[in-house]
Amino acid sequence: MDHLSTAGRTTFLMAALLLAGCGGTAAPSPAAPASSAPAKPTSAAPTTAAASAASAKPAASGEAKPAAAASAKPAASARATSWEQLLAAGRKDGTVVVGGPPFASLREAYNTQFKKDTGIDLQYVALPTSELSTRAEREAEAGKSTMDVLQSGGSEIYTMLPKNLLEPLAPNLLMPEVIDAKQWKGDQGVKWMDQQKQYVAVGSSWVMTDLFINTQTVPPGSIGSWKDLLDPKWKGKIISQDARAGGPGQAVARYVLAKFGDKFVVDLYKGQEVVLVADQRQVAEGVARGTYPIGLAPVQADVEQFRKASLPIAREFPKDGPGSLVGGFSGVKIPKAIAHPDAAAVFINWYLSKNGQTAYSQALLEPSLRKDVSTEGMPPYVIPNPNVQYDIDQYSYDFYINSAPKMGAQLRELLGR
Amino acid sequence: MLSEAKHPLPVPADSSSAAQNDKEPVGRLASPLPGVHIPTRVIFGLAIVAAVTIFTVLPAGFVFIGSFNTAGTGQAWSWGFGAWYQAFTTPRTLQSIGASFLLALRAPIAVIIGFFISWLLVRVKIPGKSFIEFALWASFFLPGLPIAMGWILLLDPKFGLINEALKHLPFVHGPVFNIYSIAGILWVQLTLTTVPVMVILLAPALRQLDSSFEQSARMCGAGHLQTLRRIVVPMLAPALLTALVFGLIRGLETFEIEQLLGIPAGIYVYATRIYDLMNVQPPQFPQAMALSTFFLLVLFLLALVYQLYTEKRMYATITGRGVMFTATYSGRWRYLATAFCALYLCAGIVLPLSLLVLGSFMRLFGFFSVPNPYTTEQWARVFRDPVFMLALRNSMFLGLSVALLGLLLYGLIAYVIVRSRLAGRRTLSLLVWLPWAVPGILLGVALLWLMLTVPGLTLLYGTMGALVLALLIQSMPFGVQLLRTALGQVSTELEQAARACGASWILTYRRVVLPLIAPMLISVAVLTFIGVLRDISTTVLLAGASTRPLALLMLEFARGGNMEAASVVGLILSMLAILVALFARRLGLQFRSEVA
User: What average pLDDT does the segment A122-145 reach?
Assistant: First the structure.
């Protein structure tokens, strides 16, 4: 029976390797040390008996296993009625898994500050927006969410909310500085992207990075109007992130479509032979290098790298279109069937607090909606000017739900599907 | 020894019996073997057929069925052909199909160049052959995105360094090269992956070819080219066809270089179009799936043609008669051939690799005139990143697990296809292509669905086991088809000799078959390892915070605008791959000397 024993050994080896794979995640992430005690609480995380009791318990470590449908816990708000209770419950969860945009700076900021403020480990799953949304939707449908918090724009309003795959956040907002409306710009409290004001909270609002010039080839201030871009001398000399796909390229295209109409969009993008690229760095690099004198929709994280190296790239504000307001990746939501509901609720509160917003806005250079978060170090062109009336807020419910999808489809028709 | 009736040259008289033996199925060989029960082996074979069917048909079926969903985002499922109509009435989709087929032409070009280089390396044994082969392997390991950025720096029509240098020539009035073009994409793909992979695939097959056939032809008066045309090419036809089909199918799937170089010129290909459809708001999954299903059918037909062809023309080149693996060519032209290879390596590999290394030490990739342009900060940043070591461990674990498990599984599947007469084995050989018939980004979605839906697999979800399984599925076509080709080159008379001496079929497989196909096994293991190290699309939807591999860390840096740190991670990945390849090569040489 040599063949059987050999086959058995082979099968055993394969099973062992697969099992080793299953257990391969047991090693704690260096980013989230299992035994580290919580740091001294900040003002956002007051010391309580519950907190110290929780700190005595080792934090959960390693990979966040999916919450099995049967064991998926109810929303955190079912139990906690105060921030202290919620924080203590969150520490019992031990870990929160945040799925967010692929920015190492954001991951590092969260890992450091959240742990320091709450004593809870944070694991960060870096995913591009569409992949994040796709994965979260499939997981929540199967009742096996591995990410406790999702951070991106607001596309889940189209995809997950209609299927009842998001948990409400509003009942879990318990931190005093978060629920105090006066801490937020306009004194209106937390900004929501959904109609129910329950599911998608937004932390920042900034001026979209519409139009940049190479200051060596285009004199600053010379683009007084968007219509100046139709000058034949700029034909083939404008670069943009693809306006037909989602993302910053389309945000700018939607803005000019709303302001100036179909014909202008066609005249600009097709008539001027705007070079559309998929990689966002190519836009800022093209302008900084002078290959393209004008760039539409580079993002500030890229632009600032070149500006810091003294390269001649600068924002231009046409008088007839100073820009629209956007929220970048600052939308947060909690999917159904998560493994750490209390820790997730703690993260949402922390994210909307001064410390959380400072960590986020400094990492991604997106100004916060909170009044007490400094804009120091922020590029001036993204900070909303109080003397300017921005007539389009692309992260308002009305625009995001009623206008943006139609305009996206319209742009694909105008510019070629 | 040739096992087919239509021999290009006369063969010894016993060839017909060998040919007969080559066709002998496992099931029929069972009875003479002591202690082997046919039902066990049949069950074992059927289990393989069933497992492959589940893991290939379900993801492909998910994509196929999804293409008929006409519901809007967030709505309940409804059936219809709306997505198909939209997909195939859209000009950009139609243009992407055309461009994909045009770019697929690189496969036959690469087969010709790759075969020629392999022949120079293996048969002619040109001076510097080891270094040249090593350089080609190294090229295949280089990360696509930073290398493409390097080519932009060299060949951009507006600022490319080569174009700028050429402008100093008196007869040049404008950019000579434009990297944003079909030709540009072809060049980058050919030099970076397609030609190197052909050499990696064809050199082991050529090594398994008994050189006495060529010597006999030469003694009969045939020239170099005639020997090549009449002996080497026909005997290697299955391997050449495998490489061609491999190149065609993989060529249709490649994504990142086409996205970087094609979209600025308005060139969309099948894979970038699918990415495009999945990235609009809301995502157009049904359209993407309809387009994918169309290509799935095209590739399925291609696989069918391949199967029909290879079934009739599988040559056994390793027989019990003894083999010779010696150089059969000499002359000064060998130095000219080395010069040709060196030129190719300099233009295609050394230049972009130098830029990649340089870029990893730059403050801003490709900006030489900024203050203090060089820094080691990017390397320090990557090594300081707490995720780096974890991701490195994960990559090594995934690479080694999938490569080793893959060898076992792919070898067994290939064995069932080539040697058995089990019901469904022909279907099996078609099914193993399916994971490549679906583009990576959609395969990732399908595997995510599979892991979240199929009972049993749900236990794996969120663990490294899920990634191992997904990558095993993703690498299956490549591993099985190559081993299938290699097995076809081994005559069954060697196995029969072992069985006649009392060895079980597993022992025969382990002690006779595996050593004989060792060069190809090593190629498959190394290429699987590299494929796993570089994979992004299959793992991006399945990896968690503590299961993420290095390639996803590279993606994080690249998407976050830090191309310099991405270059560092890319170089580390390449170095890892090269180290493993060197180790495997050493192992292969040992195997080879033992077999010889």
Answer: 91
Cα B227 to Cα B160: distance, rounded to the nearest angstrom = 44
Determine the pLDDT at residue B320: 57
Cβ-Cβ contacts under 8 Å, A62 against chain B: 546
CB pairs under 8 A between A and B: 248
Helix segments in B420-547, DSSP class H: 425-431, 434-437, 440-453, 457-460, 464-488, 492-500, 505-508, 514-516, 518-534
d(CA A120, CA A88): 10
Q: Cα separation of B323 and A318, whole Å?
A: 78
Torsion sign across C-alpha atoms B6, B9, B10, B11: negative
- The architecture of the domain spanning B8-15+39-368+381-595 is Orthogonal Bundle (1.10)
**Residue B116 carries which side chain, given as an amino acid letter?**
F
Angle between helices B386-419 and B38-66 (to 10 degrees): 120
Pairing of strands A206-207, A325-326: antiparallel
Q: Residues B532-560: what's their mean pLDDT?
A: 87
Which of B405, B546, B562 to mutate against chain A (most A CBs within 10 Å)?
Answer: B546
Q: Are strands A238-241 and A294-296 parallel, antiparallel or unpaired?
A: parallel
Question: Cα(A258)–Cα(A262) distance, rounded to whole angstroms?
Answer: 9
> Where do we find the tokens 């597993």?
B506
Backbone phi and psi for residue A115, each to the nearest 5 degrees, phi listed first: -60, -45
Of the candidates A24, A111, A285, the beta carbon closest to that of B397 is on: A24
Q: Tell me the residues of chain A between 69 and 108 that have a Cβ less than 8 Å away from chain B.
A: 97, 101-105, 107-108
| Mean pLDDT (whole number) for A165-183 | 95
Of chain B, the percentage scoring pLDDT greater than 90 comes to 13
CA distance B141 to chain A (A): 23
- Cα A286 to Cα A212: distance, rounded to the nearest angstrom: 11
Cβ neighbours, 10 Å, residue B21 = 19
Q: What is the pTM of this model?
A: 0.79
Question: In 10 A of CB A57, how many CB atoms?
Answer: 10
| Cα A4 → chain centroid | 54
| Cβ neighbours of residue A114 closer than 8 Å, sequence gap 6 or more | A96, A120, A122, A347, A350, A356, A359
Q: Is A142 on the interface with B (CB under 8 A)?
A: yes
What gap in Å lies between CA A103 and CA B446, rounded to an integer?
Answer: 26
Residues in contact with A137: Cβ distance below 8 Å, sequence separation at least 6, in sequence order: A156, A159, A160, A163, A165
Cα separation, A16 vs B72, whole angstroms: 44
Scanning the structure block, which residue is given the tokens 């290509």? B295
Q: Which residues of A touch B35 (CB under 8 A)?
A: 1-3
Give which of B365, B587, B99 is closest to A279, Cα–Cα.
B365
Output DSSP code: residue A207: E
Question: Which residues lie across from B421 on neighbouring strands?
Answer: none
pLDDT in tens, B8-27: 333 333 333 333 444 444 44
Give the residue among B413, B553, B538 at the shortest CA–CA distance from B477. B413
**Residues 303-322 (A) with a CB less than 8 A from some CB of B:** 305-306, 309-311
Please state the separation of Cα B315 from the chain's center in Å.
22
* Domain spans in chain B, listed from the N-terminal domain onward: 8-15+39-368+381-595
CA B332 – CA B339 distance, rounded (Å): 12
Q: Identify residue B390 by its one-letter amino acid code.
A: L
Prior bond to A220 cis, omega within 30? no
d(CA B252, CA B433): 13
CB atoms within 10 A of CB B64: 17
Please check whether residue A64 touches B, CB under 8 A. Answer: yes
- Return the minimum-mean-pLDDT range out of A157-166, A188-197, B55-64, B514-523: B514-523
- Angle B590-B595-B596 from CA coordinates, rounded to 5°: 95
Higher pLDDT, A2 or B101: B101
